[in-house]
């Protein structure tokens, strides 16, 4: 399309109850929109404008996030003998607060904390969340329930698409784009994927497009370098697939969804740190750059 005029009319087609409208935009703004069209997820200007409006209005972001912070943090001892891993500081701020920053960046303020080990200290520190700009609900484990069991326990709070995240990682993820993929592909669960040099210590995915066709936990012969980054978008129907008691998303749920063709992967290039042991904790303290702005995320 000829961009010589300083402004142009664009036809925008909205999904569902579609209505044709004409808008006039400055040429420089059109140029910025064109940069976001990748021909894969975003195929044209109308689609990108629609998605930008949805992001701005908060209509394509999950409204609730779950943080799995009930673990004992045994690999971080002696630090975690008296302090829960969620309260260990990275650059002067509790680990969990960095995840709050990521959620707040996308206006997600309803957070469910799944707590177990030293849970009273976590509840005392965060309270109802108001001091941190979030609204906190607690799901309390009386015994370890793995990564899936706490979600089952908190089922009554999760009646629409929600985020679930490990609590011992720092990450910069474009949640809006991840959710867009999740919905467009009609996934039951979407896993954020990052790359590492040695994937044998993580859950590893093999992709066909965005569909995860194989998911193996800590394989000796990994099918790829794309690993589970511990950040998920999940539909509430998945909760019915979780058995009572101790269970793991990685072993008990995701392989089943992959066989159903309803498990998607979202590779991302933002920073990611696993803070699960002393070596990685020190690395995060040194190199973590904090949650970036949406503008930086899109660049």
Helix amount: 25-40%
The poorly predicted ranges are: 1-16
User: What is the N-to-C succession of helices and strands?
Assistant: EEHHEEEHEHEHEEHEEEEHEEHH
The CATH homologous superfamily of the largest domain: Spore Coat Polysaccharide Biosynthesis Protein SpsA, Chain A
Kindly report how far apart the N and C termini lie.
Answer: 24 Å
Instruction: Report the principal-axis shape.
Output: globular
Average pLDDT across residues?
A: 84
> Total domains, how many?
2
Structure classification: alpha/beta
Number of helices, counting only DSSP H or I runs of 4 residues or more = 9
Strand order of the largest sheet: 7-6-3-8-13-10-14
Let me know the largest β-sheet. Answer: 7 strands, mixed
What does this structure look like?
The chain has helices at residues 27-35, 45-57, 95-105, 119-126, 149-153, 175-184, 249-260, 278-287, 294-298; strands at 7-12, 21-26, 64-68, 89-90, 93-94, 110-115, 135-140, 162-166, 169-171, 189-195, 203-208, 211-217, 226-234, 263-267, 272-274. With 299 residues, the protein is α/β, with parallel strands linked by helices. The chain has two domains: 7-57, no CATH class; 64-298, Alpha-Beta Complex (Spore Coat Polysaccharide Biosynthesis Protein SpsA, Chain A), CATH 3.90.550. The strands form five sheets. The protein has a seven-stranded mixed sheet with strand order 7-6-3-8-13-10-14. A two-stranded antiparallel ribbon has the order 1-2. It has a two-stranded antiparallel sheet with strand order 4-5. A hairpin with a 2-residue loop joins β11 and β12. The relative contact order is 0.14. Mean pLDDT is 84; it is low at 1-16.
């Amino acid at each position: 399309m000829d961009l010589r005029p300083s402004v142009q009319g664009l036809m925008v087609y909205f999904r569902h109850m579609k209505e044709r409208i004409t808008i006039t935009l400055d040429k420089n703004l059109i140029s910025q929109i064109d940069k976001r069209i990748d021909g894969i997820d975003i195929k044209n200007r109308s689609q990108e404008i629609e998605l930008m409006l949805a992001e701005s209005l908060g209509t394509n972001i999950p409204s609730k996030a779950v943080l799995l912070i009930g673990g004992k943090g045994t690999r971080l001892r002696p630090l975690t003998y008296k302090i829960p891993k969620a309260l260990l500081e990275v650059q002067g701020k509790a680990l969990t607060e960095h995840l709050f920053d990521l959620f707040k960046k996308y206006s997600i303020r309803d957070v469910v904390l799944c707590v177990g080990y030293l849970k009273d200290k976590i509840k005392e520190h965060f309270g109802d969340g108001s001091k941190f700009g979030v609204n906190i609900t607690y799901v309390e484990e009386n015994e370890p329930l793995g990564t899936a069991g706490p979600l089952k326990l908190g089922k009554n709070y999760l009646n629409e698409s929600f985020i679930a995240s490990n609590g011992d990682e720092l990450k910069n993820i474009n949640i809006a784009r991840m959710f867009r993929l999740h919905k467009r592909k009609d996934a039951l669960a979407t896993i954020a994927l990052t790359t590492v040099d040695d994937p044998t210590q993580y859950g590893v995915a093999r992709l066909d497009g965005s569909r995860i066709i194989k998911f193996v936990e800590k394989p000796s012969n990994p099918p790829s370098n794309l690993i589970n980054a511990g950040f998920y978008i999940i539909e509430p129907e998945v909760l019915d697939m979780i058995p009572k008691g101790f269970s793991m998303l990685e072993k008990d749920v995701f392989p089943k969804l992959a066989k159903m063709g309803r498990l998607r992967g979202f590779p991302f290039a933002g920073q990611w740190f696993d803070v699960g042991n002393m070596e990685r904790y020190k690395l995060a303290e040194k190199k973590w750059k904090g949650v970036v702005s949406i503008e930086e995320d899109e660049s």
